């Protein structure tokens, strides 16, 4: 199913939680809805679910306007952070519950529940009650329950937030697998950029209810539409600083970072991802302030003029505190942003 949000807006008393959001959620894709806490992700999801009525704008499921259609009639599956399983029911009863509600015959309901349980790999846990399951298993039950009605749209609101780090990674891969297997259009809400990058076909980045960018994970990472997106995505974070373009040269803290760039003279904001630095004999020279080993990576801190920066190398590089490092920045990996608006001016 294709889903279209058109100028979707939700105002509460004194906040505009979602502001003129226009988005096309493509058929069978997993769309990550990403942004900091309070940016309007859940509000958007609740409007898609029919749990909140938009102040303005429309929602279409394929050609059908569902803006005023009630939740039960939208054919959606919902999964929340806190599982929301029925504690007194077994896993089997939890999964069949939506079908029994729809008056599907008991045998048929059971058969479909078993299929779903197999799909999410909890087929051996059907007789247990929620409290006898781990968080990851409970979330699988919740996903099975959401899918058993064969909805046209699956909505997941921070489904991994209650899980510990390792289980979060495992479960997100599971969600990805299940989503591809079922082939269901899915919206996955998260404030965790790594999570969004790792499982989404496309990511919608929101801030203060406004859509900043909607593109593939590669694109939002490589070509962020503005400074906010650049800073929100990527760990370790992008290094932000300022500089000037003068006579075709990009100069930062007295160091010429680029020559022959086709841009008029002006002040610019500069973003450099830590992995964009590399060792270069003819590069600019900086003293290494400190070095941090994090397993596969080596974080190297240095000052460029007044600006503290971090570069990332593979941890087999030999770099020590106090030594002078000669660095270059990979071609096309310096991001420039407008001083006032923060909008992207492209890469050099
Ligand atoms: N029922 C409500 N009444 C008033 N304000 C709300 C309500 N729900 C959400 N908000 C506000 O709307 C904004 C977006 O909230 P929400 O969609 O929950 O953000 P997110 O899920 O991205 O953290 C926040 O400023 C929040 O305080
Ligand atoms: Mg939320």
Automatic annotation (TrEMBL):
The keyword ATP-binding applies. One of its GO terms (cellular component) is ATP-binding cassette (ABC) transporter complex, substrate-binding subunit-containing. One of its GO terms (molecular function) is ATP hydrolysis activity. Pfam families: ABC_tran. SMART domains: AAA. Keywords: ATP-binding, Nucleotide-binding, Sugar transport, Transport. InterPro entries: AAA+_ATPase, ABC_transporter-like_ATP-bd, ABC_transporter-like_CS, ABC_transpr_MalK/UgpC-like, Mo/tungstate-bd_C_term_dom, NA-bd_OB-fold, P-loop_NTPase. Residues 3-233 form the ABC transporter domain. This is Multiple sugar transport system ATP-binding protein. It comes from Anaerocolumna jejuensis DSM 15929.
């Amino acid at each position: 199913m294709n889903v279209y949000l058109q100028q979707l807006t939700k105002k509460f008393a004194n906040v505009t939680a979602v502001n003129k959001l226009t988005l096309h959620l493509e058929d069978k894709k997993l769309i990550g809805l990403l942004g900091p806490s309070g940016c309007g992700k859940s509000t958007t999801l609740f409007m898609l679910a029919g749990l909140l009525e938009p102040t303005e704008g429309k929602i279409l499921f394929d050609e059908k306007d569902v803006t005023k259609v009630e939740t039960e009639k939208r054919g959606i599956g919902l999964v929340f952070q806190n599982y929301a399983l029925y504690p007194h029911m077994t896993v089997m009863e939890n999964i069949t519950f939506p079908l029994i509600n729809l008056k599907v015959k008991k045998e048929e309901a059971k058969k479909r529940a078993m299929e779903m349980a197999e799909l999410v790999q909890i087929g051996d846990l059907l007789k247990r009650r929620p409290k006898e399951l781990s968080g990851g298993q409970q979330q699988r039950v919740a996903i099975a329950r959401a899918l058993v009605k064969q909805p046209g749209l699956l909505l997941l609101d921070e489904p991994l937030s209650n899980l510990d780090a390792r289980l979060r990674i495992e479960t997100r891969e599971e969600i990805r697998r299940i989503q591809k297997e079922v082939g269901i259009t899915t919206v996955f809400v998260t404030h965790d950029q790594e999570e969004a990058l790792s499982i989404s076909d496309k990511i919608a980045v929101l801030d203060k209810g406004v859509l900043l960018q909607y593109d593939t994970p590669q694109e939002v990472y490589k070509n962020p539409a503005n400074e906010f997106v650049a800073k929100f995505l990527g760990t370790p974070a992008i290094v932000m600083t300022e500089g000037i373009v003068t006579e075709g040269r990009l100069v930062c803290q007295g160091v010429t970072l680029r020559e022959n760039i086709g841009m008029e003279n002006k002040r610019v904001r500069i973003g450099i991802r830590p992995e964009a630095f590399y060792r270069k004999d003819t590069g600019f020279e900086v003293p290494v302030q400190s070095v941090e080993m994090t397993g596969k990576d080596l974080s190297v801190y240095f000052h460029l003029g007044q600006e503290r920066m971090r570069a990332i190398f593979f941890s087999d590089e030999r770099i020590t505190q106090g030594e002078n490092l000669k660095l270059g920045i990979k071609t096309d990996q310096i991001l420039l942003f407008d001083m006032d608006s923060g909008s992207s001016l492209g890469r050099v």
